[in-house]
Every structure is written in structure tokens, then in C-alpha cells.
Amino acid sequence: MDLTPVSAPGRQKIQKYGNGRFTVSGAVFNGSVLVLPDGAVAWPATDIAALSDEAVSALIEHARSVDICLIGCGANAVPFLPDLRKRLKEAGVHVDFMDTGAACRTFNVLVAEGRSLAAALIAI
After folding, report:
1. What predicted TM-score, i.e. pTM, was given to this entire model?
2. What pLDDT, in 10s, does the model give residues 26-37?
């Protein structure tokens, strides 16, 4: 029995993560990545607790058009980050923070359900 999730054509799938890189729909990214409904781009983020303005701006720019953005915080989920959450909420970006592995797995499940989402993933 084939248990491979079926996703809509053109939707992204996170195939691999670890060793500081990601494979998203066949494309390899060294370092952190923003995975969007129609593609993926490198993301200049290395530490969720100390995101640069450039990284937050890129996240806001790319994630405004989706229902939710999963934030992969690295090897471990981080405690509530009120300033970051407030900034994203004010920009209209709805987020859920979790460790990067959980964010990758959750992204794939929600994409298979046809949900409109993005993932901002810190490389581990």
C-alpha cells in the first residue's frame, strides 16, 4: 500500500532537512529557507530569537498571502517570542512556532490537505 501523500500539482513538498540544508521539491537550499505555495527562497535567518530586520521583512513580504506560516525555530521550539509575534500579527501574518522538524512534517501534511501556507525554517 502506497502511503505517500498526494499533493496538488505545483505545490511544494519538503523532502529532506538536516545538516544545515533543505531539499524542497527537488531544489537544495544550504541554510534557512522560506517555503511558499509556489516555490522556495533562501531566508537570511540563523537564530529565531535574534532575527534580523531583513529576515523579518522577507518573512512578512512572502507570508502575507497565506493562511498560516509555520516557523521552524531550529532544533528546539523556543519560548513565546512576544515582540516577534506582535510584529508579524500587525503585518497580517498568522504564525505557529515549533521546532524545524515538526514544521517540515506539519507543512507536508497541510499541503496534502490543500491548505494555503508557508514555512519559515531555520536550518538544523
Report:
1. 0.91
2. 999 999 999 999
